[in-house]
Design goal:
Elements (H helix, E strand, L loop, with lengths): L4 E7 L2 E7 L10 H8 L9 E7 L5 E8 L4 E2 L3 H13 L8 E5 L2 E7 L6 E5 L6 E2 L9 E9 L1 E8 L7 H9 L10 E8 L3 E8 L4 E3 L3 H13 L7 E4 L5 E7 L7 E8 L1 E7 L3
Parallel strand pairs: 2-3, 4-6, 11-12
Antiparallel strand pairs: 1-2, 1-18, 3-4, 4-5, 6-7, 7-8, 8-17, 9-10, 10-11, 12-13, 13-14, 15-16, 16-17
Length: 274
């Protein structure tokens, strides 16, 4: 679409093309155009495309998310962190308190003060469950399933650096237990005494991405309900950036109102074909 103004943003290595829906609404973008814009090498290059439109009330922003295969998805954590920063910068909502109206429902969001371009989301409660129907392979300790906007599997492994993320992620992404739509697959392990690292195979991208915000929340919830970690918790993504997860795990079965914090950085603004 010649003359389209886009913003390229990154959230801990997850990168996105943003369109201001006040000028070009989501309904004007075809799946073919979304795939072309997200294509690396021939397009802008991104894990997904997001359109921000005015919300249903003051302080709200409508958040439309599309994976880079052109298919719509309910939510994207790192995309929502980026959206929070961009919506404030574009004057669409106040930086200190806004609501993102996503396909999964309303999400409270705010820009964080201090160094770095960071934001925080408050997400719906999540309740991970063990998945005994998925046999473990060498190097795996447990598998949990949960939903944080989109379905997730969380695989606790001995060493995430050696995990076959592409091969095993492709197998588990479409496992019958997660349903026809599939799930993101998050591999996590402890690194040293206190640190944790995560790698994610994302559906829609159909490969490993450098970070996954909702995957970090799903992983924190799975580890917390098993008593492996306590919240708040930080995890290092494949990009080297750190995502933070906080929330209430008091009942031992679910995480109430989990909060995700992380980067939402503007890379560039451009006019396509100009």
């Amino acid at each position: 679409m010649r003359g389209l103004v886009i913003h390229k943003m990154t959230g801990s290595g997850n990168d996105f093309v943003f369109v201001d829906g006040r000028t070009v609404p989501a309904s004007a973008l075809s799946a073919d155009l979304i795939r072309a814009l997200c294509a690396r090498g021939t397009g802008v290059g991104a894990d997904g495309l997001i359109v921000l439109e005015p919300g249903s009330r003051a302080g709200a922003v409508r958040f439309h998310f599309f994976n880079n295969d052109g298919r719509r998805a309910e939510m994207c954590g790192n995309g929502a962190l980026c959206a929070t920063r961009l919506a404030a910068w574009l004057g669409m909502a106040p930086a200190h308190a806004m609501v993102l109206e996503t396909d999964m429902g309303a999400v409270e969001a705010r820009c964080l003060e201090g160094p770095g371009e960071r934001a925080e989301l408050t997400l719906p409660s999540t309740q991970p469950v063990h998945v005994p129907d998925i046999p473990l392979v060498d190097g795996e300790r447990s598998v949990h399933a949960t939903v944080v906007g989109v379905p997730h599997l969380v695989v606790l492994v001995d060493d995430v650096r050696k995990a076959p993320v592409l091969e095993r992620g492709r197998q588990l992404r479409s496992h019958p237990v997660v349903g026809e739509a599939g799930a993101n697959v998050n591999f996590v392990s402890a690194e040293g005494q206190d640190g944790w690292s995560i790698r994610t195979f994302e559906r829609g991208v159909e490969g490993e991405t450098l970070a996954c915000g909702t995957g970090a929340v799903a992983t924190a919830a799975a580890l917390a309900v098993d008593g492996v970690i306590r919240l708040p918790w930080e995890v290092r993504t494949a990009s080297g950036s750190v995502l933070g997860v906080a929330g209430d795990a008091g009942n031992g079965r679910r995480i109430s109102a989990p909060r995700l914090s992380g980067e939402g950085r503007l890379v560039f603004r451009a006019v396509l074909g100009a």
